[in-house]
Design a protein that fits this description.
Helices cover 21% and strands 20% of the residues. By secondary structure, it is α+β, with helices and mostly antiparallel strands.
Length: 324
């Protein structure tokens, strides 16, 4: 008889704290000095996370880049320290507080292989690619399937620019994104319950939409490792799990890719995963979202407010297939 084993995605991730962090903080907070200085300790941790690790990033001189005024926000930007210390990155653990663990990931050298149904398959060195691309800044809302949100200034380039470079063949219908695999530094990848590496996918129409963005920087600086450095997606009309981090391969194909979360629980995490408050998650409502940093709750918008850009891609707004 099969016995279900509770997985990380079946509990509130925010409720978990890595054992090492818990034990170290408990020892520190046990004394009177800890009670006095704990707030300062947390502030220092957030500052360090926002600044990233001490290793110089060879792309640092490319940032900040010019902001594209086409992409505007209806809310204030999330504080950098909040956005860079509250992260989902299951490769490094199920806690939101994985920023320190993520510093172990080496991001140089880093290459992105683009293959499959293209006329010009290529393997790009990340720094050569950054110099070749039209970098810009876009302020986007980001909506997690867990019903929290943030607003951040991503730096990078349109995904369509990369698609154009490799010249997709006529039969290519989908892009399959594969992230890094390195269990030596990413302990979560040793968990056999997850089908590593992380896979995600888009239709070619989604990938060439104006809104689809490759993020390589944030807050006018290179991406920190916990935010997906050095190459991630930013797809603001979709739930956040679609915006894969640490990408190393993009394959053009005529078959719809199976994402990691879709493989784990297809009834809750679908291929399209477009934001829509009218379609609740099976275990919670999507009517509203908690704004990271402020604690405010605001109503969730269909397509996260980006319907003018993407609604035409989906022929039936009443079809749940597009909204989970």
């Amino acid at each position: 008889m099969w016995i279900a084993k509770k997985r990380g995605w079946e509990i509130a991730a925010s409720a978990l704290t890595p054992e090492s962090v818990f034990r170290n903080r408990r020892r520190f907070l046990a004394g009177a000095a800890g009670a006095i200085f704990a707030p300062a300790l947390l502030a220092c941790e957030k500052k360090a996370a926002a600044e990233g690790d001490a290793t110089p990033d060879p792309s640092a001189g490319l940032y900040p880049v010019q902001r594209n005024p086409k992409y505007t926000l209806d809310r204030d930007l999330t504080a950098e320290a909040d956005a860079t210390t509250y992260n989902n990155y299951y490769e490094f653990g199920t806690s939101k507080n994985i920023w320190e663990a993520a510093q172990a990931l080496p991001i140089r050298p880093w290459t992105i292989t683009v293959d499959g149904m293209v006329a010009k398959p290529q393997t790009f060195d990340i720094d050569a690619l950054l110099r070749a691309m039209p970098l810009e800044e876009r302020t986007y809302r980001h909506r997690c399937v867990e019903a929290w949100s943030m607003a951040v200034p991503w730096s990078g380039f349109p995904l369509s620019a990369l698609v154009k470079m490799v010249e997709p063949q006529a039969g290519a219908k989908f892009l399959r994104f594969e992230t890094f695999m390195n269990a030596d530094v990413a302990p979560g990848q040793s968990d056999p319950l997850y089908p590593w590496p992380y896979i995600e996918g888009l239709t070619i129409e989604e990938a060439t939409n104006d809104l689809a963005f490759v993020a390589t920087g944030i807050y006018g600086k290179p991406l920190p490792k916990q935010s997906g450095a050095p190459f991630r997606l930013a797809l603001p009309w979709k739930y956040g799990f679609k915006s894969a981090k640490g990408i190393q391969r993009i394959t053009f194909t005529d078959e719809q890719p199976m994402g990691l979360w879709q493989a784990l629980q297809g009834s809750e995490y679908g291929f399209y995963a477009n934001v829509n408050p009218a379609f609740p998650h099976p275990r919670w409502s999507q009517d509203s979202e908690r704004v990271l940093g402020s604690g405010d709750r605001v109503p969730t918008q269909i397509f996260n407010g980006y319907g003018d850009f993407v609604a035409s891609l989906y022929p039936d707004l009443n079809d749940r297939t597009y909204f989970y």
